[in-house]
């Protein structure tokens, strides 16, 4: 299993040939200019919420790939309004789990806001826990530090993808606490550096995580790594 980072919070998991894209924001990201969005062709697209920096390329990628899009009910309504066929949309809600050919995905709580680009209510923001062949991967989406994360501590997470940019989400210090809350020692940082308010000192972030004996990965945009 592999993961490719496309900048901001956009990750693509390759689960033994099944490609799962999260929060597609590529062509509008000034740091991802080298990525051709037309080459991204997932089987599934997951949306943590409806803010522009998480959904901007959803329609283009879905049209190019025929991917099935999964989101909370109200954000899924926006997906349909973009012309995505009903049979290519799966809506579910907090606490719900969907079974897919590659494994299961549970929708979990996130502390943030959520509206869609057309100004409509987008439902709750969410995170996801992927359970694929015994590996458990937590994608937090946009979230503040929240006590609900402690509910994930018994899941034996292998990886946690956590926002670290601050301003709109958790910062580095809160992400360290989040890693402790969810009991996961391998963290991939997301949602940082794309815009001035969320720029970070990468070396300082790496040092802070290392001081707490937690591994922090900050992959280069376009790079792929093993899960």
From TrEMBL:
NCBIfam families: PRK00685.1 (NF001911). It comes from the Bacteria. Pfam families: Lactamase_B_2 (PF12706). Keywords: Hydrolase. PANTHER family: UPF0173 METAL-DEPENDENT HYDROLASE MJ1163, UPF0173 METAL-DEPENDENT HYDROLASE MJ1163-RELATED. SMART domains: Lactamase_B. This is Metal-dependent hydrolase. Gene3D superfamilies: Ribonuclease Z/Hydroxyacylglutathione hydrolase-like (3.60.15.10). Residues 7-191 form the Metallo-beta-lactamase domain. InterPro entries: Metallo-B-lactamas, RibonucZ/Hydroxyglut_hydro, UPF0173_UPF0282_UlaG_hydrolase. One of its GO terms (molecular function) is hydrolase activity.
């Amino acid at each position: 299993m592999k993961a490719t980072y496309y900048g901001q919070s956009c990750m693509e998991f390759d689960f033994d040939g099944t490609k799962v894209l999260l929060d597609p924001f590529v062509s509008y990201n000034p740091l991802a200019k080298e990525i051709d969005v037309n080459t991204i062709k997932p089987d599934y697209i997951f949306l943590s919420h409806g803010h522009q920096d998480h959904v901007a390329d959803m329609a283009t990628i879905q049209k190019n790939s025929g991917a099935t899009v999964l989101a909370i009910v109200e954000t899924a309504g926006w997906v349909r309004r973009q012309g995505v066929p009903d049979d290519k949309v799966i809506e579910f809600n907090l606490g719900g789990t969907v079974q897919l050919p590659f494994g299961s995905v549970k929708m979990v709580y996130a502390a943030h806001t959520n509206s869609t680009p057309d100004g409509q209510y987008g439902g709750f923001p969410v995170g996801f826990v992927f359970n694929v062949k015994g590996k458990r991967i937590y994608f937090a989406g946009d979230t503040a530090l929240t006590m609900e994360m402690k509910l994930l501590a018994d899941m034996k997470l292998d990886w946690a993808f956590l926002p670290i940019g601050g301003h709109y989400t958790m910062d580095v210090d809160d992400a360290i606490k989040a890693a402790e809350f969810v009991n996961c020692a391998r963290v991939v940082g997301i949602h940082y550096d794309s815009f001035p308010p969320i720029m970070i000192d990468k070396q300082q972030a790496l040092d802070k995580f290392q001081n707490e004996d937690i591994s922090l990965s900050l992959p280069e945009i376009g790079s792929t790594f093993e899960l």
